[in-house]
Amino acid sequence: MHHANHFYGHAHVLARYAGLGDRHPPRINGYVQHGWNIGDGLAPGHPYADRTPSLLWSEQTRRRAWSVGRRNVVVIGAPFTYLLAMRPEDPPAEEREGTIWYPFHGWEGQHVKGDHRKLIALIQATEPGPVTVCLYWHEYRMRNVRRLYERAGFRVICHGYRGHWWKDTDPEFLDKQLTELRRHRRVASNRLTSAIFYGIAAGCEPAVYGDPMILSNEDPTFGGTARIRRQWPELHGTAVDVPTAVHIARAELGIDHRCAPAELRELLGWANLQEEEDDRDD
């Protein structure tokens, strides 16, 4: 299994939905898109073996992959949509309050450059209710960054470690994220990212505003933040039309392409594995 298939516990979520329980996920026959992007579903520079299936989130991504020469591509929907299917109202929704805010983040190979103090001031001036700031594990471990948000009076959390090279993946990452999103009325970030689309699908009002910051050595191949703002202007601003956002998120996450468990097992190369008994309806 390519190690990126484990990111954010994606393989674990798919295995649960496919009826394989909480065992270690079997090897997936292909590359699962591990985050929303504006390219072919794989990160720029991502190592790719010819003729290996790309398992993508949306029809839009499939068309872009086709346009750059990828042929063995299948739309299965985002792993997050499978989690939504398993947890449609679990637990019962309490009254939502405040905003969960996701500052743009770096990772092991690239750091973010930007003014967190200015971003904090903008959040304080914009958000009316209590604010939860969710830092990516990379920034959460940077005490100087985390303390800026804590000292501003925000509740600061982290959903867990994404994992890297098959190590230390938090299989509950997406479960924690869904639980937090369902606690909040709004979801916001300074870039349009997976978290915004997840929040919309989980019932949050979205917002994208503030300095998008700079990722060191950011690859401009597919147009970067300038293209994102041109192509999805409806999702930018401190107040966004919710029905429009829901329509876009549904397409970008591939909710209508979510597979049935048996179909998913076939596509992932798990058709001959023993399905575990559970109480979930297919």
CATH topology of the largest domain: Rossmann fold
First CA to last CA: what distance? 26 Å
If strands are numbered along the chain, what order do they take across the biggest sheet?
Answer: 7-6-4-8-9
- Low-confidence runs of at least 5 consecutive residues: 277-282
What is the chain-wise order of helices and strands? HEEHEHEEHEHHEHEHEEHHH
Radius of gyration: 18 Å
Based on the coordinates given, report the CATH architecture of the largest domain. 3-Layer(aba) Sandwich
Shape: globular
The chain-level mean pLDDT equals: 89
Which class of secondary structure composition applies to the elements? alpha/beta
Q: How many strands?
A: 10
Please, how many helices?
A: 11
Number of domains: 2
CATH class of the largest domain: Alpha Beta
Task: Profile the largest sheet.
Answer: 5 strands, parallel
Describe the model:
It comes from Micromonospora taraxaci. This is Polysaccharide pyruvyl transferase. The protein folds into two domains: 3-87 and 256-268, no CATH class; 99-253, Rossmann fold (3-Layer(aba) Sandwich), CATH 3.40.50. Helices cover 33% and strands 11% of the residues. It contains eleven helices and ten strands. Strands 7-6-4-8-9 form a five-stranded parallel beta sheet, sandwiched between helices. The protein has a three-stranded parallel beta sheet with strand order 1-2-3, covered by helices on one side. Helix 1 packs across helix 3. The radius of gyration is 18 Å and the shape is globular.
Labels describing this entry:
alpha/beta, Rossmann fold, disordered C terminus, 282 residues, 5-stranded parallel sheet, globular, 2 domains, 3-stranded parallel sheet
